[in-house]
Amino acid sequence: MEKRTFYVEGNTIRKTAPAKEYPEIRRARKAKERMQEERRRKERAVRAAQRNQERALYMNPAYVAFLSMCVVALCVVCGVYINLQSDISSHISNIASIENDIINTRSANDEALNAIESSVDLSSVKYKAMHDLGMVYPRASQIVYYSVDESDSMTQYSDMPEAEK
Questions:
Q1: Fewer CB within 10 Å, N or C, the chain?
Q2: Which stretch of DSSP H or E encloses residue 111?
């Protein structure tokens, strides 16, 4: 846009002064400048995006080799992890079966103990001891009492007297 100048008449010499700039013209000029700046900014963004795409598409052999090794290492780690998980699962099932065997064995032991305890009849044992083996209850003269001081052990200094028959 051209700037218009005009002469100012004075008492000395003529001077040129810029023309008044009207607000509409100023707004139009600023809008035009903003549009040009916006266009430049968009062009820079497009160029930057194109450069980034070009960089992203470029892969040298060393980078490809590095990525390949990373993928192989990741596959190995995943395989080892899956193998360990499988081992843990099998160990857990083995432990569960062993615990089941322990429970069954304890149950069988308890049943056998109950059978043994129920098979022993104390009255039959007493009868057999008294009649078949000749055992008798002790007489009062055969019973020897001793006292213990507050300790829980006792020292024997001589033999116990023989029981009368």
A1: C
A2: helix 61-119
Task: Give kind and range of the element (H or E) at residue 11.
Answer: none
The pTM of the full predicted model, rounded to 2 decimals, is 0.39
pLDDT digits (tens, 9 = 90+) for 78-97: 999 999 999 999 999 999 99
Other C-beta atoms lying within 10 Å of the C-beta of residue 103: 10
The contacts of residue 138 (CB under 8 Å, 6+ apart) are 163
In 3D space, the residue among 1, 77, 67, 69 whose CA is nearest the CA of residue 33 turns out to be 1
**Helices (H) then strands (E): counts for the chain:** 3, 2
The secondary structure element, H or E, covering residue 145 is: none
Spatial contact of 3 and 19, defined as CB atoms under 8 Å apart: yes
Residue length, the chain?
A: 165
> Helix, strand, or coil here: 82?
helix
**CA dihedral sign, ordered 40, 44, 45, 49:** positive
pLDDT per residue as tens digits for the range 128-154? 889 999 898 888 888 888 776 676 676
